[in-house]
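FAQ: What does the model actually see?

It sees only this:
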Amino acid sequence: MKTRVIMPAIGIVLLTAGCKKELELDYRDIEPVLVVEANLGEGGATVVLTQTTPMDEPMNRTRLTDAVVTISGADGVDEQLVAGADGIYSAAIVPTSGVSYSLAVERPGGFRAVSECVMQHRATIAEAGFSWISMPYDEVAVLSVYVNDPPERGDAYWLRVFRNGEVYAWQVADDRFALDGRLELSMMTARRNPTDPDDEDNLDDGDVLTISVAAIPPHVYDYLTRLSAHAVAGPTTFTGDFCLGYFLASTPSETSVTFSR
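And it is asked to produce this:
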């Protein structure tokens, strides 16, 4: 039996009346923190280095190129990545499934951070498409992506969606809710009758959505889950000097769908 506590509406009004107060948030000034976005797959290795931006300043996405970045593996791989004109470090490394790889990032002043990741199996997208659901405010297009999921493993996946080549949305999920060897990843997208022309989620007829799904290990899943909740506290994916970001050894599978009302 559940106990319910009922508070009359008048009581709520009395409690909240006169409690309005203007809050002043005092952000601490801290040194920028390195952010590493590193991927290793069949297409090779790419690493992007940036820094965090203070809360009261515009987002700074300048890529850093003053680091020594290396990837080594249990299969004998030992490569130093080279930064291109676009600021992206890269190397033509062909990873092997099930092999552990290590990423090391060194910067002036003695900074060194290391992350390890076992090359994941390649996820398989079974199908993807839109369906409309009714909400109190409008109909909403739901993008559903079905991934073949081996039932004998506890896997997690990273779904990334690009609209006409630009980042649109992403999410992570594990396979606890997989059914009959398939896991559904879904996200709400456009409204049938959008009222805000500046809504970033709004899709136009003809928009091409490129869908990317990658299998990810538990430590990357935990990091991305915290990131999606706008929380960075807790264990990081790197050892050594503190930094944010991830190193993922996984080749994603891709497909595309075109949006139409």
